[in-house]
UniProtKB/TrEMBL annotation, chains A, B:
Belongs to the homoserine dehydrogenase family. It comes from Acidisoma cellulosilyticum. The lineage of its organism: Bacteria, Pseudomonadati, Pseudomonadota, Alphaproteobacteria, Acetobacterales. This is Homoserine dehydrogenase. PANTHER family: HOMOSERINE DEHYDROGENASE (PTHR43331:SF1). Its EC number is 1.1.1.3. InterPro entries: ACT-like_dom_sf, ACT_dom, Asp/hSer_DH_NAD-bd, HDH, HDH_cat, HDH_CS, NAD(P)-bd_dom_sf. It is an enzyme of class 1 (oxidoreductase). GO terms for molecular function: homoserine dehydrogenase activity; NADP binding. Pfam families: ACT (PF01842), Homoserine_dh (PF00742), NAD_binding_3 (PF03447). It comes from the Bacteria.
């Protein structure tokens, strides 16, 4: 490791899209990477279950392990790249084995870090090895480096953004084409922008994994996935997107980690973002991360959050840091300096709300609804109802002034119980990154 | 330097906005900076001409040097922060003296780096000391770190952006308020967004200094300011901004460094940017940097490009890197690995053009103009002429298809010589970051 003339020998555990992409980046850009790393970075070993599949690169000369843990302890491997994925099983075993063998690890595994990052960081610190995870958040965007090193002079007030390209793609197509969620999801699956099992993406879990990592870095505390409030985009309808447009908003799945005087709030949910906000313009599969520091103000980074090239670019950036000996504590500060701010529950959230009801069009409905809001202490900013259809189901949209989540939830359950309200109300928080 | 428990002692040469801002960041965020740097970073010495001025921080306990070179060689200083400014004189002397004394240097001085960066980088490499300059480009945006480390796995195809907040502010206000350049400049000076002598900003020199630095980093070659083509915004009129809006463009002062098969093109000039482009939305004093890599694709970074807080944030980020021992060669690779791609002259540029003429409104004018364009081999994409005013001066706007700068300049000089063309034509290149 410390001899600057020796090649850095990399073992890649997992040869899916990102693993194969990493081999390709290291080979295609070998000359420039070697100059920037100060020495060659070469893949010496790989592991994957199926040896026969064509992965788009030549495997001659590579040591092949069926067992990723065996790769991690192979003497021909200086650094282990873990791109198996999954929070448990072989991915976790491989990372732990590599650290215990004193080998630096680079991983793109956000689930692993969000759920076991605190333990793995302690282990890596105990063994004195770096654990790189630039690729785990926002793909090719150097968000981890920017937050942990570039903005290190600042107390971070908030970090937030569009952290899942699948959701952003679906919401963008729904808006541009006026189509409904299920249909656009099916297309996204056909085009390879969404997984066959899309739950991790569309239920907000993937974005929440990334936000948990960003929050730990921003606020210098152990990653704590359980503290997050998480909602996905399954219930967003073409109707709500049309109303958002009329009101001057765009609906984005945002992850928001914010520090207040009382503690830290971390949440992932669909958000009505004023369309003049920069982040409202980030469309398609692009990701964006916005960090606010007490001296730098707001900095936004934007780029591709997934895909072989962008993700492998981030993996190799970590390898170059390791080759150069550029070391940074995993959460920005050593373990002893980590803090723990109180986690604010979602019920403490304050903000404005968009509420869309399907009601029977008859006199007195609005009086009932507004009475409930008044009784809960929620004040209205505006109301939309288009056309008339006596006796039929029609949408009513209400936009509140800033209120508390507690008051809003109380009002929501009373409204849902009104006779004239025909479907469960749709509620979307108004906000920005 | 290498004892991790000893404070890193900083000497600050120059106590203007950035120097005073750096003291304030180091003091106000001392606890968090110390945790992230692994040891305290303390200001021990300062230099400035006038000791009596109130700079907004307590100077008790600081060693005061009248001569910045003396500060650079003070044994109580481990690292020198040069924020005097200017490409010659005390700034250059201070940086050279510090390097020769074996001390790391952090500077916000883009002029110094653009004009003497090649020499200073060689000197720093010879003495084995880091030379940090995150603050020299795009203020608080960690553009240098992102390009040099975050995207290090990529061959960089282009780097470009909005690099001068003063120009972007003036162009934004001109567009929003329909006012002319001179008037908006005077306001910007009154508000402190433009210097009393605004030439460096509005003539594009400041943006060009920053682009020269980004280009050197992106393409791994010694900084070469003389290779840049530079135009400013003095000749942009409210009329051109109105036509831009009609054509679906926004006028931005862009710096663009691009690699082609033939070499590298680096240029700063007002650009008609399609308004759907992300960078067209970057308004006011904000800066943005867009880098394109062969694997990562396009990454954009946005934030405040000037001001005490953002610039000091970047200075202190460099100090934290130095305190942690995170070292990177100045241009991303060691001196022996620097290359030198041919610099493409502006005459080799290819692109589309916006051309606005003031002509006498009489029959045959368009025939004359289009004949000249045809003879130069330039083909037209569209033409605008509003209203009629027989015998009077009226504007005509022409938008060309892609052509060469050489052909366009030939056509331009012939058009300027036509009897019916009453003023020097306005030419603005069409493009994007």
């Amino acid at each position: 490791m410390s001899d600057p003339h020796k090649p850095l020998r990399v073992g890649i555990a997992g040869l899916g899209t990102v693993g194969a992409g990493t081999v390709n980046v290291l080979r295609q850009n070998a000359a420039i990477i070697s100059a920037r790393a100060g020495r060659p970075i070469t893949v010496t070993a790989v592991s994957a279950r199926d040896r026969t599949r064509d992965r788009g690169f030549a495997t001659e000369g590579l040591i092949w392990h069926d067992d990723a843990v065996a790769l991690a302890t192979d003497d021909n491997v200086d650094v282990v790249v873990e791109v198996i994925g999954g929070a448990q099983g072989p991915a976790a075993d491989t990372v732990r084995a590599a650290i215990r063998a004193g080998k630096p690890v680079v991983t793109a595994n956000k689930a692993l870090l969000a759920l076991h990052g605190a333990e793995l960081a302690s282990l890596a610190e105990e063994y004195g090895v770096p654990l790189g995870f630039e690729a785990a958040v926002a793909g090719g965007i150097p968000a981890i480096k920017a937050l942990r090193e570039g903005l290190a002079a600042n107390e971070i007030i908030s970090v937030s953004g569009i952290l899942n390209g699948t959701c952003n793609y679906i919401l963008t197509v729904m808006r541009e084409q006026g189509r409904d969620f299920a249909e656009v999801l099916a297309d996204a699956q056909a085009f390879g922008y969404a997984e066959a099992d899309p739950a991790f993406d569309i239920d907000g879990v993937d974005a929440a994994h990334k936000l948990a990592i960003l929050g730990a870095l921003a606020f210098g505390q152990p990653v704590d996935f359980a503290a997050l409030h998480v909602e996905g985009i399954r219930r967003i309808t073409a109707l709500d997107i049309a109303f958002a447009r009329e009101l001057g908003f765009r609906i984005k799945l945002l992850g928001i980690a914010k520090r207040t005087a009382d503690g830290v709030s971390m949440r992932v949910h669909p958000t009505m973002v004023p369309e003049a906000e920069e982040i409202a313009q980030v469309d398609g599969v692009f990701n964006a991360v916005v960090a606010e520091g007490n001296f730098v103000g707001r900095v936004m980074l934007m780029g591709r959050g997934a895909g072989a090239g962008p993700t492998a670019s981030a993996v190799v950036a970590d390898l170059i840091d390791i080759a150069r000996g550029r070391l940074t504590p995993i959460w920005g500060v050593e373990g002893y300096a980590l803090g723990k701010l109180p986690a604010l529950p979602m019920s403490a959230h304050q903000g404005a709300y968009y509420l869309r009801l399907m009601v029977r069009d008859r006199s007195g409905v609005m009086a009932d609804v507004t009475a409930v809001l008044r009784d809960a202490g929620v004040s209205l900013q505006s109301m939309l109802q288009h056309g008339r259809a006596p006796g039929e189901s029609v949408p009513i949209v209400l936009v509140t002034h800033e209120t508390t989540e507690g008051a809003m939830m109380q009002a929501l359950s009373a409204i849902a119980n009104l006779d004239s309200v025909l479907e469960p109300p749709a509620l979307i928080r108004i906000g920005a990154a």
